[in-house]
Design goal:
Layout: H1 2-11, E1 13-15, E2 19-21, H2 32-46, E3 53-57, H3 62-71, E4 77-80, E5 92-99, E6 104-111, E7 120-128, H4 132-143, E8 147-157, H5 162-168, E9 173-183, E10 186-189
Parallel strand pairs: 3-4, 3-7, 7-8, 8-9
Antiparallel strand pairs: 1-2, 5-6, 9-10
Length: 191
């Protein structure tokens, strides 16, 4: 998506370890009109697939997931929590997820009340690097016997192969921008 690629080039920054910093519009300060355009594209791509819920992970995927849900007839959004709090009652689905950005492993959980067999899911996140967060959400979906209709992220770091691995496993992954390489601080997008 050219709009997102231009925004990354104009407003993003490259940090050490090839971290792409887009917190000025995507995952810290949110530009709602811009995010809404991303959500419209995701909704358009996955329309007609009978999706009845969106699954994401806290915290950065929530805004994009909510806006996408709005465009998909206001379907519910469920987000995996990075720790089981006292207000989650009953049984949960859980999976271990390692965050590339934070270099930390989380046990993410979703209450069994909110995912079930027969659900047709779209899984959304803001970033995809190694694919471990997405794999955790897939694991939770499989535990619930839900059907995964598609995966989507705003930005995929293609050089870290998480997206390639998911596609090889047969998942329909829509990445709105794929960074193929970062060479001396310059971003090259996949065409």
């Amino acid at each position: 998506m050219k709009l997102l690629e231009e925004k990354i080039l104009n407003d993003g920054k490259i940090l050490e370890d090839n971290i792409i910093k887009v917190d000025s519009f995507l995952n810290h300060r949110l530009e709602t009109d811009f995010l809404n355009k991303l959500a419209e594209e995701i909704s358009r791509y996955f329309s007609g697939r009978g999706i009845n819920k969106i699954l994401t992970i806290e915290a950065s995927g929530i805004a994009l997931a909510i806006l996408t849900a709005y465009h998909m007839d206001n379907i519910p959004v469920v987000f995996a929590k990075k720790s089981k709090s006292k207000n989650i009652e009953g049984d949960v689905f859980s999976s271990q997820v390692k965050s590339y950005t934070y270099d930390k492993t989380y046990s993410v959980t979703v209450s069994k009340k909110y995912l079930s067999q027969g659900d047709r899911l779209l899984i959304i996140d803001d970033f995809l690097a190694t694919g471990l967060a997405m794999e955790g959400l897939i694991d939770i979906s499989n535990q619930a016997c839900a059907e995964i209709k598609g995966l989507s992220v705003a930005v995929e770091k293609g050089f870290q192969k998480g997206g390639d691995s998911l596609r090889e496993k047969g998942y329909d992954l829509l990445s709105l921008a794929i960074v193929d390489t970062i060479d001396e601080g310059k971003i090259i997008f996949r065409s």
